[in-house]
Amino acid sequence: MEKITQTIYDRIDNEVYNSEGDIWWRPDSVLHLLKTSVNPCRVGYFQRHIQQLGINPQGKTALEVGSGGGILSEEICRMGFKTTGIDPSEPSLHTARNHARTSGLDIRYDHGTGEQLPYADASFDCVFCCDVLEHVRDLPKVISEIARVLKPGGVFFYDTLNRTFISKLVAIKIWQEWKRWAFMPPNLHVWEMFIKPSEIRELLAANNLEWREHRGAEPNASIPKMLGFLRKRARGEWTYADLGQNFGLVESGDMNIFYMGFAIKNM
Ligand SMILES: C[S@@+](CC[C@H](N)C(=O)[O-])C[C@H]1O[C@@H](n2cnc3c(N)ncnc32)[C@H](O)[C@@H]1O
User: How big is the chain by its Cα radius of gyration, in Å?
Assistant: First the structure.
């Protein structure tokens, strides 16, 4: 795939993650939807494959690249992995560390970027990178760093947004730009940074990672129903917490908007 230019990267608002205070675990915040609306789908998918691959997480090491406030890292830790999260945002790391402490979870959180992971080669049994690949400055470097820190035979689990006409309409126009329905801050996502499944597969192959599967996920409501939910939120009749209770992703064969997948590092 073509490299993301500086002009395109300048448009994405990754500063959102540096906001002060807890922007992740308050039920009425937009990022909490990662827990209520995205986690059930992606965690279920990853857990199923971890089981099918015969991986017993006890005593195994896992890294989450772009761990934010720890919404996914905590689930990885609960599966039994010795878990590390890494993120460039200090305020998010602060929230993640506090939340893990109050949840009684032993997670190590480090400061850094996916482009330059501060870990030795072959350090982790599994690496997760979810809802992050479409945010990074240098995607090929991030994939090569993930491949480097994975042990041979280790598994890379990911999810991201696809770059299609439908994802532009739904994830950019409806979710972000058209005020009638929008529930995300403008420029949280930039469509040009979305990644086609074929592009990920090319990068995986170039980094000695054997691609195994892609699986789509789509909103659990028809488009008219989803628009109704989002309209209630935009009008102030519903909070983000209400939205999170009613609206979420479910696995499907449709990869037009969102997809998950995994790959195994060759021995
Ligand atoms: C949508 S959040 C996802 C957080 C977490 N993975 C989850 O799903 O709950 C995107 C995260 O990517 C982080 N991020 C942005 N650029 C990054 C980079 N180059 N390397 C690693 N993380 C990055 C942000 O700081 C933010 O925490």
Answer: 18
